[in-house]
C-alpha cells in the first residue's frame, strides 16, 4: 500500500538541548503544533525564560499535502538561522512542528557561515532527541440510516476495521466514522452503494 497518508510528527515537546560554539550558547527544542497560533506563545515563553538571550530563532511547518512553513532569523543575518533550522525539518521529514533555537551570545562573532552551521547543528541535535511518531491522515464520514440497517452497517464497519468516533443510535441512526485517507474513496463507495444509507464527508 502507498504510504501517502502517513506523516511524521511529535506528540510532545522534545527535551531541550544545549549546543555551544565559541562561548555562544544555543538552546534548541522541538514542539508539536496544530496551527500557526501555537507559535507565538511558545516563542514569548522562551524570551521570558532566557531574558539574556539575543535571539530566539525558529522555523515551523504545518500540513501534509501542501505544507506551509515559516523561518524566522530574529535579527540574525538574513537566512543564517531560520532557514538552516527549517532545513532540518525537511531533512527529518517531520511536519506540524516548531523548532526553536535560542542564542545567548558569548562575545565572539561566528560569521554567517558559523551561524548557519551552529543553528543547523542545534536543530539537528534537538530532532535527534525528539520522539518522532508516525500518524495517519484521516478523514471523517457521517452515516445516516434507519434502525433496520443497523446490522449491515455495523457488520461492514467491523469487517473493514473502521473507527466509530461518535454515534446516535435511535430510530434514525447517525454514526461518525474516521477512515485512513488512502481508504476514503473505497469506504465512501461501499456505503454509498447501500441505498438506504446516506454517507457524507465531514468538512
Q: How would you characterize this protein structure?
A:
Pfam families: Impact_N. One of its GO terms (biological process) is regulation of translational initiation. The relative contact order is 0.18. With 203 residues, the protein is of the alpha+beta class. It has a 5-stranded antiparallel β-sheet, with helices on both faces. It has 5 helices and 11 strands, in the order βββαββαβαββαββαβ. It starts with 5 loop residues before the first strand and ends with a strand. β2 and β3 (24-32) form a beta hairpin. The chain has 2 domains: 6-135, 2-Layer Sandwich (Ribosomal Protein S5, domain 2), CATH 3.30.230.30; 138-201, ACT domain (Alpha-Beta Plaits), CATH 3.30.70. The protein has helices at 39-49, 82-91, 111-129, 150-159, 184-192, and strands spanning 6-10, 17-21, 24-32, 55-62, 68-72, 97-104, 132-136, 138-146, 163-169, 172-180, 198-201. α2 packs parallel to α3. The longest helix has 19 residues, at 111-129. It is elongated. Helix content is 29%, strand content 36%.
Task: Give a summary of the structure in a few sentences.
The chain is α+β, with helices and mostly antiparallel strands and 203 residues long. Helix content is 29%, strand content 36%. Strands 2-3-6-4-5 form a 5-stranded antiparallel beta sheet, sandwiched between helices. Strands 9-10-8-11 form a 4-stranded antiparallel beta sheet, with helices on one face.
List keywords for this structure.
203 residues; alpha+beta; Ribosomal Protein S5, domain 2; Alpha-Beta Plaits; 4-stranded antiparallel beta sheet; 5 helices; elongated; Ribosomal_Su5_D2-typ_SF
